[in-house]
Design goal:
Distance between the termini: 20 Å
Number of strands: 0
Number of helices: 12
Order of helices and strands: HHHHHHHHHHHH
Largest sheet: none
Shape: extended
Bound molecules: zinc ion
Length: 225
């Protein structure tokens, strides 16, 4: 949806919608189902998918329950809720383990500062991003971040993390450190990997790390940043 104009954190959208739904006539036991549908709507990849979810929701739920969603996020935006960027960014690009809202908001802030306008289309903003090479700027910001000076000794001691120190966030280092610690337990190669580090953060899990060999930064950055 290159005409998307919403550049807001989906977490905040969901939170605001959930607050309104709590006060609506929808019975409590259906509220989590409603929020599941809202989340599905956020994940829509095309406008057709988006409209199908919304149509289905309009049939399922009372009007007062849908009104905030419609007034705030659908009708006010040319009749179509434009999907949020952040979800797609987090899902498909390396996020260096950022999982709390504050780093996301900080990243969001620098993104907006870089594109100079909070309501430009996705297409126009992407052009500005490329122009200013914001992705490499963000990497530099991470490496300059003061948090890197307070790294625990356990991280410094892990040979596997050598290449990543000061290059990725401390949050990511901690996640990978945990994966390295789990390697000591051993694992069965036949059992499929169910580690959360990979799908959630796009970081290497214990099945990807070779003991004693520094993890390369390149595969992480190639994933998108
Ligand atoms: Zn794994």
């Amino acid at each position: 949806m290159p005409s998307s104009r919403v550049q807001i954190c989906r977490w905040h959208i969901w939170r605001n919608i959930a607050k309104k739904v709590e006060k609506s006539s929808l019975p409590k036991n259906q509220q989590s189902e409603f929020m599941d549908d809202v989340k599905n709507m956020t994940f829509s990849k095309t406008e057709d998918d988006l409209r199908a979810v919304i149509d289905n929701m309009s049939l399922k739920y009372p009007a007062d329950c849908m009104s905030y969603l419609k007034d705030q996020w659908l009708d006010s935006l040319d009749g179509v809720m434009k999907k949020c960027w952040l979800e797609q960014h987090i899902k498909h690009n390396t996020n260096f383990g950022f999982s709390t809202t504050s780093p996301v908001e900080a990243s969001h802030h620098s993104l907006k500062a870089g594109i100079l306008c909070a309501s430009a289309t996705l297409h126009a903003s992407a052009l500005r991003l490329l122009e200013h090479d914001l992705w490499s700027q963000q990497l530099k910001d991470i490496s300059k971040s003061r948090e890197n000076f307070r790294l625990p000794l356990s991280i410094h001691r892990k040979i596997e993390l050598t290449n990543l120190i000061t290059r990725v966030s401390v949050g990511a280092l901690r996640i990978i450190e945990k994966e390295i610690s789990k390697m000591a337990d051993g694992y069965d190669l036949e059992t499929p990997c169910k580690c959360t580090a990979k799908p959630r953060f796009l970081l290497p899990c214990r099945h990807d790390i070779i003991p004693g060999r520094p993890i390369l930064l390149a595969p992480l950055t190639l994933a998108g940043v």
